[in-house]
Amino acid sequence: MNSESPFSSSAGAAGDAVVPVSVLNRAIGTMLERSFPLVWVSGEVSNFTRAASGHWYFSIKDAQAQMRCVMFRGRAQYAEFTPREGDKIEVRALVTMYEPRGELQLNVEAVRRTGQGRLYEAFLRLKAQLESEGLFDAERKRALPAHPRAIGIVTSLQAAALRDVLTTLARRAPHIPVIVYPAPVQGAGVSAKLAAMVETASRRGEVDVLIVCRGGGSIEDLWAFNEEVLARAIAESKMPVVSGVGHETDFTIADFAADVRAPTPTGAAELVSPQRVLLLRELDHRHATLARGFGRMMERRAQQLDWLARRLVSPAERLARQRTHLQQLSVRLASAGARPVRDARGRFALVQMRWQRWRPDLSLQRSQVSGLAERMERALLRQHERHIARVETLAARLEVLSPQRTLERGYAALLDAQNGRAVRAPSALKPGRRMTVHLAEGSADIALSDVQPRLTEGF
């Protein structure tokens, strides 16, 4: 480095200069920051502490060494996770020195997981993406059939999970056929093959419910069930899908996309298969209930038949009774139909007589109305003539008092040009003041040049 040291000015020719510790630490810190750029450092988290100020203090270590780290609150609040003791992480940091104690440390700007942590971050990102698309919504989840006609299984033929599922299905529901759609569950390109088997089962429609399963393992072993292609295939399946991947604590993207998640492959088999013993027990119960109900119904029908037999009458006698009853009804109907007509005619005649007696004579009223109309027309005409005469009289008086007639007799009206008010006193006439003079045939604006007011009592 060609730059001058911060304490080079204090150094003597013989190198016997004395520098304070703070100056030395500051110089070392400056040299470290200039010599080491931002770098990614990996290690295991140790002694992690979150201060009340929000700063993070921890160490990262490997088998041979360790380094103290600090991540200030301004950077820590944007971290996607909080490290825990023993986590494998990578930090993007600047090598610095904490001058008060003279300790070397890493000033951390960013933190991320390594190895399994990166897979977990990818898992969280894909889960958030598919969840935002509504792929995991509860509204789209379908109920499992209570009595499936056939059960499908998507897994490897060599998987222990397949044996567990088949054993459970044989024990619980040996009467239900099982169709296996073989696909590898670990290795490169596995997720696409699993998705292809799910699509094949959905396209064929041979089963009523589908199980996608495999045994437990690390996150790397289960990663095929965290791929987007498998999740979308499960979501688009025409039949309900049950996921049984890993152990009870293992969660995959396939679990969230499936209609039902089972904690284990065996649990998935138990969810989709009704227990045969319980079905037979329920069938016996229903058979006994049906037999009792049928016996009671037969007893009620026999009792009803006896009652109807006692009421049974000869058809000829029954017809004779109905014929007699019909004749009686006919006579009553004829009598009942004639009586209202007679009553109505009598009431009508009575009302007509009363109406003829009280019918008014309108000829007299018409003559009276005609006379009143003529009188009203004459009165309105006289009133109109009086109003016209009065209007003419008022118009003549108004003409006499009109200002225009006064101006035509030789008078003039003098108004102030500024406020438009009439000038009444000679004292208001001042030289230079502008006036408006109204005459009989128009008006004119004038300016007074020489004024000699003179008071008079009139003409």
From TrEMBL:
GO molecular function: exodeoxyribonuclease VII activity; nucleic acid binding
Catalytic function, reaction form: Exonucleolytic cleavage in either 5'- to 3'- or 3'- to 5'-direction to yield nucleoside 5'-phosphates
Location of the protein in the cell: Cytoplasm
EC number in record: 3.1.11.6
Pfam families xref list: Exonuc_VII_L (PF02601), tRNA_anti_2 (PF13742)
BP terms from Gene Ontology: DNA catabolic process
InterPro entries, sorted: Exonuc_VII_L, Exonuc_VII_lsu_C, OB-fold_nuc-bd_dom
Domain of life: Bacteria
Domain (Exonuclease VII large subunit C-terminal) ranges: 135-445
Keywords carried by this UniProt record: Cytoplasm, Exonuclease, Hydrolase, Nuclease
GO CC terms of this entry: cytoplasm; exodeoxyribonuclease VII complex
SUBUNIT field: Heterooligomer composed of large and small subunits.
Biological function: Bidirectionally degrades single-stranded DNA into large acid-insoluble oligonucleotides, which are then degraded further into small acid-soluble oligonucleotides.
Family: Belongs to the XseA family.
Protein name per UniProt: Exodeoxyribonuclease 7 large subunit
Originating species: Paraburkholderia steynii
Lineage: Bacteria, Pseudomonadati, Pseudomonadota, Betaproteobacteria, Burkholderiales
Gene: xseA
